[in-house]
Amino acid sequence: MQTELSQRLGIEHAVFGFTPFPAVAAAISRAGGLGVLGAVRYTDPGALARDLDWMDAHTGGRPYGLDVVMPAGRAEGVTEADVEAMIPDGHRSFVRDLLARHGVPELAAGDRRGWRITGWLEDVARAQLDAAFDHPLALLANALGPPPADVVQRAHAHGTLVAALAGSARHATRHADAGIDVVVAQGYEAGGHTGEIATMVLTPEIVRAVGPLPVLAAGGIGSGEQIAAGLALGAQGVWIGSLWLTTEEADLGSQALTAKLLAAGSGDTVRSRALSGKPARQLRTAWTEAWDDPSGPGPLPMPLQGLLVAEALTRIQKYEAAPLLGTPVGQIVGSMNSRRGVQAVFDDLTRGFDRAVARLDRIAARTGAPAAAGAPVGRAGPAADSPD
Amino acid sequence: MQTELSQRLGIEHAVFGFTPFPAVAAAISRAGGLGVLGAVRYTDPGALARDLDWMDAHTGGRPYGLDVVMPAGRAEGVTEADVEAMIPDGHRSFVRDLLARHGVPELAAGDRRGWRITGWLEDVARAQLDAAFDHPLALLANALGPPPADVVQRAHAHGTLVAALAGSARHATRHADAGIDVVVAQGYEAGGHTGEIATMVLTPEIVRAVGPLPVLAAGGIGSGEQIAAGLALGAQGVWIGSLWLTTEEADLGSQALTAKLLAAGSGDTVRSRALSGKPARQLRTAWTEAWDDPSGPGPLPMPLQGLLVAEALTRIQKYEAAPLLGTPVGQIVGSMNSRRGVQAVFDDLTRGFDRAVARLDRIAARTGAPAAAGAPVGRAGPAADSPD
């Protein structure tokens, strides 16, 4: 699975694996993909530096990347306290009542509260970058479009490619104009922040809009067959996030959450503003249902919603309040049904890709005169083309 | 593009083209695919018989199919008048006011009113079948799951394969149990009635659920690259509907509607219950916005909504009330930007498919040691893998 982009990055397979867990990211890079570590949970730049040191020691010299969450625009001088003050009391009591109804205990005095959202603030992201650029980053990805211009320049000076997620061709064009190197076409079926255009339509649309800039297909990719589909659409690689959540190397901090992911079907996710204020695909839970209920107050806009719910999400996770317990995840959650190591998952991806390409070769080679034009057809029997 | 299924049907390419227009269906069959004529607009079985006679004379002996809209369950003795009586007055006045607000004239005394929905009633569909089975149908497809058991038996006795649309693996399994021969996996991005699971995820899920029964990928397929993607996912063929709406052979009966389709982007569709009462993807218009507005009465359930709006839709179309004018269409509408003949469109499909397979072959062949493991990477330049 080598494209021009994977060759330029010096990786064996054009598989970009996003994950919040250093052990997963390192295993993806060791397996021949590009592990991309999510930085959003690191409020302490020192902790990020330590984990990147660990990555350097455990990737066997293979390249890896970092994913940050930075808005391209800046709101100078706005503090977390300023944003907190904009949250209506009615929303605070809605959160309090929802957790009380489900019997979720308060945090103890010493517990860390709400890391989930502070990583979204620009000063936190910049401190992350100061720590990160001491390391040999091959790729810097940003979940909210292009990072600020000075960050793009800094990455390029460091020899780091810059990638930005886009949910529409219009956004992708804007990202390309900002000087980034790779567009991640994030389809509707993807986990996390996502738009309404499905990967099958979005990928070629973005390839047309920004080519020859390389595009990664994201959303709905969890098998080698799906990788082949993404690359058939013109992508130079695939961006996979959800699939790693149930690997042995992943530490979700909750057995109950892992069990929910393994049990969930493709119809058990929802695109909801309940986590961050922007539509993000996640497990459908009592939490998303409460926020999406038209009789409730509804989610606040980003970044208010994220700040509002940060502590609540920490409590739900810590006390494993099963009905409320969720996570961003894509529709491929329906195929994530067993816990395996990253290498085993990766081996399946390469085998599935080879199988899909071989099948397409047979289908292409068979082109020619029909076998029995106009002849009546009988009841369908088993078909040898079926991949199973 | 030949699979076991296309070989069994005696067609050159595993491309199934759904269309309400005999001229389009015949041209698809002549081009080597399987034209599938939508029967829903034929309230007069005699008119359907005449059009099928025309198809027989204009497909050069190539196979074709018919698509009906039949519920699997029967509501014995329920007439159109019974259903009409269930429509609340408030909904009738909402329709009246909406059309008045947009200045849409009343129909004249002699005008045909509201053919769009009567084809959904079982007795109409059965009369259509009586006419259709006088013709050499290769495929009978049903948009609402498996047709009633006696219809499946009748099709099989006639040498006709039976296909049913499914939006989830659970529905597909139920369809397979009803003895059908082909499942059409209708993804979220498809035009018309559709579920929430995207084609990228739905297709392999249904292949796993019903294999070795053949599956067609539907939704998001409008190019050869997208055909390659659908087949990579394990499908035995693709089901394409939207793409033909802007061909020269199609007669939408409204220049304004054709112009809207040619101008629309992938983000200009919406999954709405405004046409039939069940979620169907269609152009986003003042009509869909009015029905989806939470301050309005909202759509009625199927089949009430279809009966309620039939005459209104006829008026909107006849008088080309541009803001209200819409049609079921999928997200690929964004790539339908020029009016061409069916054969030219088909040639593009086969060329794009060959190009995608050749590109995948190159990507697969390149697998091996990385070119420059661990080396720093520079600013991205043009990439030769880009399909454009």
Automatic annotation (TrEMBL), chains A, B:
Name of a matching Pfam family: NMO
Organism: Streptomyces telluris
A GO molecular function held by the record: nitronate monooxygenase activity
Descriptive protein name: Nitronate monooxygenase family protein
Ranges in a coiled coil: none
Keyword rRNA processing attributed: no
Keywords recorded for this protein, A-Z: Flavoprotein, FMN, Monooxygenase, Oxidoreductase
Listed InterPro entries: Aldolase_TIM (IPR013785), NMO (IPR004136)
Taxon lineage: Bacteria, Bacillati, Actinomycetota, Actinomycetes, Kitasatosporales
Domain of life: Bacteria
Region Disordered, residue ranges: 368-388
